[in-house]
Amino acid sequence: MGAKMLTDLFDPELDKEERKVMSRVQQTSATKEMAASLMQLTFQSDVADLARSVTTPTFPNATFHPLEGNAHVPWAGDVDTAVEAILEFCGKAGSGARAACTTPAHALTRSGEVWTLTFGGETIHLKHARGLSDLAVLLAHPDQEIPAEMLWAGAEATPRAPG
Questions:
Q1: I want to staple 71 with a disulfide (CB 3.0 to 4.6 A). Which of 11, 44, 62, 91 is the partner?
Q2: Could you please report the per-residue DSSP string of 77-120?
Q3: What are phi and psi for residue 21, nearest 5 degrees?
Q4: pTM for this entry
C-alpha cells in the first residue's frame, strides 16, 4: 500500500507497467519498518520556518526554474527544461550541449565505492549512490533512449534505438 501511495505521489502519470516496476523497486529498497519510519518523518517534517530564512542560492548565480507537470522523478515530466537549465548553469547550453558533457574532458567513473567526476576542469570524488549509477548509464549513451524501468531495476543499460 505504501509503495503504491509513493508511486502515485512521485509520478501520478505513470502507465500501469511503469507503476508496477516502480512499486516493486520501492518494496525491495527498504524493510516495511524503515519505509514506515521514512514516510512518517517525511509527512511530519515542517521546514516552513527554515525555508523563510534562506536568503541566498545554494550555488552562486543559481536561478529557480519551475517545471511543468506533477512528476517528482528526474526522468519524467518536463525533462527537457530541466536538462537545458542544468546545461546552461554549467556553461554548456546550446547546440550539441548534451554531447559536450560526454567528451573526455568530462567524465564520470566508478572505482569500488568511489565515483570520480571530472567537469569544467575540476575533479571531485563522491561516495557511491544509486543516482550516480543512473547518471553514468545515461551519460554513456547520449541521444539514446534508456527506458526508466531499466534504471529502476539497477541493470547496466543496453539502450534501445529511439523510435
A1: 11
A2: SSHHHHHHHHHHHTT--STTHHHHTTSTTSEEEEETTEEEEEET
A3: -65, -50
A4: 0.41
Which pLDDT band holds residue 158 (cuts at 50, 70, 90)? very low
The grid coordinates of residue 163 equal: 523510435
- For residue 5, give the C-alpha cell: 501511495
Judging by DSSP bridges, how do beta strands 114-119 and 107-111 pair with one another? Answer: antiparallel
Q: Which residue has the cell 557511491?
A: 128
More confident residue, 103 or 22: 22
Look up cell 511503469; give the residue. 18
The x, y and z cell numbers of residue 16, run together, are 500501469
C-alpha–C-alpha distance, residues 68 and 41, integer Å: 27
**59-88 mean pLDDT:** 77
Burial class, 20, CB count within 10 angstroms (exposed 0-12 / middle 13-18 / buried 19+): middle
- E-assigned strands of the chain? 107-111, 114-119, 122-127
Structure confidence at residue 94 as a pLDDT band (50, 70, 90): low
pLDDT at res. 163: 41
Average pLDDT over residues 32-52: 84
